UniProtKB/TrEMBL annotation:
Transmembrane segments: 12-34, 40-58, 65-82, 88-111, 132-158, 212-231, 243-260
GO molecular function: amine transmembrane transporter activity; carnitine transmembrane transporter activity
Family recorded in the similarity comment: Belongs to the binding-protein-dependent transport system permease family.
Entry keyword set: Cell membrane, Membrane, Transmembrane, Transmembrane helix, Transport
Subcellular location: Cell membrane
Source organism of this protein record: Phocaeicola massiliensis B84634 = Timone 84634 = DSM 17679 = JCM 13223
UniProt membrane topology term: Multi-pass membrane protein
Signal peptide as annotated in the record: none
Protein name as it appears in the record: ABC transmembrane type-1 domain-containing protein
Domain called ABC transmembrane type-1: residue spans: 85-264
């Protein structure tokens, strides 16, 4: 009988004991980043946020999405969940930005290196198929309770789509375009930034869209380790058997998910049209 869990536990304990300063620095850095995002969103009056998001949704995705955005956000405000929604939005956007900082370079590297692609593929499979609850265990041990371990678990869960779709987008750039660019003397950097990335941008935007939605899908799970936001409302509804409260929190999550999904899809369609 092989007790794999015992060795994983030993490894986590060793990391906790020997890298305390490193995890403290991550806690402070990511915590400050999320708090800054949250403070800005809280500082802006709700009606200005609603107007800005409505105009963005209207411009990127059309009149129907714009109307849905204004009524959806007004519904969230009227239910009294505005602060929780801004907390969730701050966590989702912060996690997405960090996931993109990690995922985009890995996707580019994977597209240009078969060895990297072979190594990353099973790791990404593991990150996507491992139950999300499992990520909370090392997150709490390394970083304690709060928004930072929630963001840590969210980043692990949400990074694979942008890595995969960035790699796929670059690989799908026509070879004759790449060869023509090289024949005209383009350097690898010029080839990447002026040819491959622009042509792969619609696919990359799809990856960003999926990363945002997967980050949002983690809000309820992250609430179990005191990440706050709309997930906490849904969790209260579950634990206290308050069906109405749980549904209200769920409706707010759905509204936010649809708005973010349509806006990011609008960016992707615009890039594809160009």
């Amino acid at each position: 009988m092989i007790n794999i869990g015992k060795y994983i536990e030993m490894a986590i304990n060793w990391l906790t004991e020997n890298f305390t300063l490193f995890f403290d620095a991550i806690n402070v850095g990511i915590g400050g980043f999320i708090d800054g995002f949250q403070n800005v969103l809280m500082w802006i009056p709700f009606y200005i946020t609603i107007v800005l998001l409505t105009l963005l949704a209207w411009y990127k995705s059309g009149k129907g999405v714009g109307v849905f955005t204004v009524f959806g956000l007004l519904l969230i405000w009227s239910m009294g969940f505005w602060n929780e929604t801004m907390q969730t939005l701050a966590l989702v956007l912060s996690s997405t930005i960090i996931a993109l900082i990690i995922g985009l370079p890995l996707g580019i590297w994977s597209a240009n290196s078969q060895r990297c692609d072979k190594i990353l593929h099973p790791i990404l499979d593991l990150m996507q198929t491992m139950p999300a609850f499992v990520y909370l265990i090392p997150a709490v041990l390394f970083l304690g309770l709060g928004t930072v371990p929630g963001a840590f678990a969210t980043i692990i869960f949400a990074t694979p789509p942008v890595v995969r779709l960035t790699s796929l987008g670059i690989k799908q750039v026509p070879k004759n375009v790449v060869e023509a660019s090289r024949s005209f003397g383009a350097t690898p950097t010029q080839l990447l930034f002026k040819v491959q990335l622009p042509l792969a941008l619609p696919t990359i935007m799809t990856g960003i869209n999926q990363t945002i939605l997967m980050s949002l899908s983690m809000v309820v799970i992250a609430a179990m380790i005191a990440a706050g936001g709309l997930g906490e409302i849904v969790l209260k509804g579950i634990t206290q058997m308050k069906i109405g409260l749980g549904f209200e929190g769920g409706i707010a999550v759905v509204i936010l998910a649809i708005i973010l999904d349509r806006i990011t899809q609008g960016f992707g369609k615009q890039k594809k049209g160009k």
